[in-house]
Amino acid sequence: IPQLEESLKEYILDKLSANFDGKNLYEIAELLCIPVKSKKEQKLLETITDFHYAKDWLMENINLSSHKQILTVMNLLGISVPNTNEQTLRDYMSFEFIQKLLEFRELKKLLTTYGENILNKINPVTKCLHPEFNQNGTATGRFSSVNPNCQNIPADDVFRSNFVARDGFKLIIADYNQQEYRLAGALTGDKQIIAAYKAGHDIHTSTAAIAYNVPLSEVTKEQRFDGKRINFLTLYGGSPQKLHKVLNLSLERSKEIIDSINNSYSTSIKFRDLYGEKAFEVGYSITAFGRKRFYEKPKIYSSLEEFNAIKKRIKRQAYNALIQGTGADIVKLAMVECFYNNPFGLDNFRMLLQVHDEIVFEVRDSIVDEAVKFIKETLERVEQKFLGEIPAVVEINVNDFWKK
Q1: Upper half-sphere CA count for residue 89 (Cβ side, 13 Å)
Q2: What phi, psi does 219 have (nearest 5°)?
Q3: Separation of alpha carbons 356 and 353, rounded Å
Q4: CA dist 17 → 75, 118, 331 (Å)
Q5: Contacts of 353 (CB under 8 A, 6+ apart)
Q6: Is residue 286 helix, strand or coil?
Q7: CA 253, CA 265: separation in Å to the nearest integer?
Q8: Left (φ > 0), alpha (ψ -120 to 50) or beta: where does 388 sit?
Q9: Residue 325: CB partners within 8 Å, gap ≥ 6?
Q10: What gap in Å lies between CA 400 and CA 388, rounded to an integer?
Q11: Residue 16: how many other CB atoms lie within 10 Å
Q12: Tens digits of per-residue pLDDT, 121-164?
């Protein structure tokens, strides 16, 4: 991070050096919107005209977290942007400065969120983290986690390798494979999705093949990753404009892809719309397990636009609650079964973490094989009740540290 920060500041000063000709350091500071704290400091800066001496002060006082300074810098660089929000800057990735700035922000965010904040939560006695879990922490019924939030730790080994099993134990990471899309296929009865899973196909690869009009066997790793993003965007009714931003495609191509996917999975799309309409009408949605989520609607709408906006929101939330909510129910049922049917005892086998469709267990070395079999059989049996023809698949990873 310090190297990238220095590189960015060097880039700014190098590219804008022509703008500093004939100016003293105070005038340069004003040009870059760098605050000067006092009249005394202003007078001192006015005496510095040698850029060699000015540069050290500028390197120290350019604040890459200041939206005002960065917006000024970008305008001086000829990058005309309305603001410095990440979503806005994503549309200007052709500029080298924007690329470097977003990379710096991401790294700084990771350091703060998953470095310092995590370390401060380590219990001084146990030397462990003890996060709190709220099983009704989200509107869909998923768990939430705080102090610290262990559900948003990046899947990268750089972060997760710091979460380790105790001596004499292993971590077993059990992950429901493509749970949301399997549920979408099963709950909507979409024959295309059902057939893909029954044939053992990867649905993201299948979608990539449709989107890029290539045979399944020729789908590349990059196309498959795009297929995954397309799937989750179209599953919940994302627009061509959203896909355009996510994949950096033209609006015309984004619309073609969404139309192609919607035509291929037409049953699930029709079901999604009808389910949303019904949820808006009755005021609630319901998971396959029977859990309801209620929605508030005004008795009187101020305009047709307000009515349409609220209806669209509730329809989207309702279908999301059906899929994600049913998934949350399945995971909780599986956790209950693993706890109460635990044949090994809590000293040898215990659940540590729950991250949406993933459960992490800590298991004594001597029973790993038996524990893997127990976990896989339990989780798949619970989910299979909701999937019909689609096979339930649980992926297992055994390691000394938390690994996706």
Answers
A1: 20
A2: -70, 125
A3: 10
A4: 14, 41, 58
A5: 131, 150, 359, 360, 402
A6: strand
A7: 18
A8: left
A9: 140, 141, 142, 285, 287, 291, 293
A10: 35
A11: 16
A12: 999 999 999 999 998 888 999 999 999 999 988 888 888 998 99
Structure tokens given for 3: 């190297």
Cα(135)–Cα(389) distance, rounded to whole angstroms?
Answer: 29
Angstrom distance (rounded) from CA 271 to CA 187: 9
Characterise 200 by phi-psi region: left (phi > 0), alpha (psi -120 to 50), beta (else): left
Per-residue pLDDT tens digits of the chain, which is 404 residues long: 788 889 999 999 999 988 998 899 999 999 999 999 899 999 999 999 988 888 999 999 999 999 999 999 999 999 999 999 988 898 888 899 999 999 999 888 888 778 778 888 999 999 999 999 998 888 999 999 999 999 988 888 888 998 999 999 999 999 999 999 999 999 999 999 999 999 998 889 988 998 888 999 999 999 999 899 888 888 888 888 888 888 878 889 889 888 888 888 899 999 999 999 999 999 999 999 999 999 999 989 999 999 999 999 999 999 999 999 999 999 999 999 999 999 999 999 999 999 999 999 999 999 999 999 999 999 999 999 999 999 999 999 999 999 87
**Phi and psi at residue 218, to the nearest 5°:** -105, 5
CA distances from residue 353 to 143, 397, 401, 402 in whole angstroms, order as listed = 10, 14, 13, 10
DSSP state of 115: I
The C-alpha atoms of residue 385 and residue 129 are separated, in whole angstroms, by: 35
The residue assigned the tokens 């000067």 is: 36
Asked, as a colleague might, if the bond just before 154 is cis with ω within 30 of 0, I would say no
CA torsion 10-16-21-27 (nearest 10°) is: -90
C-alpha distances in angstroms, 95 versus 50, 74, 100, 332?
30, 10, 9, 46
What is the C-alpha to C-alpha distance for residues 310 and 280, in angstroms, rounded to an integer? 9
pTM for the whole structure? 0.80
